[in-house]
Specification:
The complex is a heterodimer of chains A (109) and B (113).
Chain A (H helix, E strand, L loop, with lengths): L3 E4 L2 E5 L4 E7 L5 E7 L5 E7 L2 E5 L2 E6 L4 E6 L8 E8 L6 E3 L3 E6 L1
Parallel strand pairs in A: 2-11
Antiparallel strand pairs in A: 1-3, 3-8, 4-5, 4-9, 6-7, 7-8, 9-10, 9-11
Chain B lengths: L4 E3 L2 E4 L5 E6 L6 E8 L3 E9 L2 E4 L8 E5 L5 E5 L8 E8 L7 E2 L3 E5 L1
Parallel strand pairs in B: 2-11
Antiparallel strand pairs in B: 1-3, 3-8, 4-5, 4-9, 5-6, 7-8, 9-10, 9-11
The chains are: A mainly beta (109), B mainly beta (113).
Chain lengths: 109, 113
């Protein structure tokens, strides 16, 4: 079993829909990261969180440390949100990341 | 520059040749990480630098892989006697301090024929 599990692996939505991507991990962590990777593009950090909830524009990330679970929500999804979303956990104080397998999101107009 | 840069962006080499991949982190960032993204393995950690030291090199897959960082800035990842299984995108990331948010470079796509 992988240390970081994401679900779903693939997600298709219509423009405007509310999106949720889930991440569960099995190790102790110092922080959890949500990353975005567009096709053929580089990796962009969306959120880094160790407790509670963060919001940036239409994106919201939450984490429950006790349940070892995090969610990434996208409100009013748009085709430009189509990308791979990757959950990664930092299990050390120096930030070495262990990655989930990614969720491929496709938003249709 | 404003972000992390890597060179070359693409590298095609023949099996058995050596390759060097370069990473220029964001100026002032003390922590530097190398990761690898391949179809079969996803994203995986290779090595971490704090300044010029590499306290964690546990992800290097074999002794054909080595890395160094000089001047607390530029880092080079060297792969000797490349094999086809080394084909992947090699990503570099840096952070201001260890454990901070990481900023990723565009990657080097390595193809070993």
């Amino acid at each position: 079993k992988n240390e970081v599990e994401q679900s779903p692996q693939n997600l298709t939505a219509q423009e405007g829909e509310f999106i949720t991507i889930n991440c569960s991990y099995s190790v102790g962590i110092s922080a959890l990261h949500w990353l975005q990777q567009h096709p053929g593009g580089g990796i962009v950090s969306l959120f880094m969180l160790s407790s509670g909830k963060k919001k940036h524009g239409r994106l919201i990330a939450t984490i429950n440390i006790q349940e070892k679970h995090s969610s990434l929500h996208i409100t009013a999804s748009h085709p430009r949100d189509s990308a791979v979303y990757i959950c990664a956990v930092g299990g050390t104080s120096y930030g070495k990341l262990t990655f989930g397998q990614g969720t491929i999101l496709t938003v249709h107009p | 520059g404003a972000g992390v840069s890597q060179s070359p962006s693409n590298k095609v080499t023949e099996k058995g040749k050596d390759v060097e991949l370069r990473c220029d982190p964001i100026s002032g960032h003390t922590a530097l990480y190398w990761y690898r993204q391949s179809l079969g393995q996803g994203l995986e950690f290779l090595i971490y630098f704090q300044g010029n030291s590499a306290p964690d090199k546990s992800g290097l897959p074999s002794d054909r892989f080595s890395a160094e960082r000089t001047g607390g800035s530029v880092s080079t990842l060297t792969i000797q006697r490349t094999q086809q299984e080394d084909s992947a995108v090699y990503l570099c990331a840096s952070s201001l301090m260890p454990g901070d948010e990481q900023f990723f470079g565009p990657g080097t796509r390595l193809t070993v024929l």
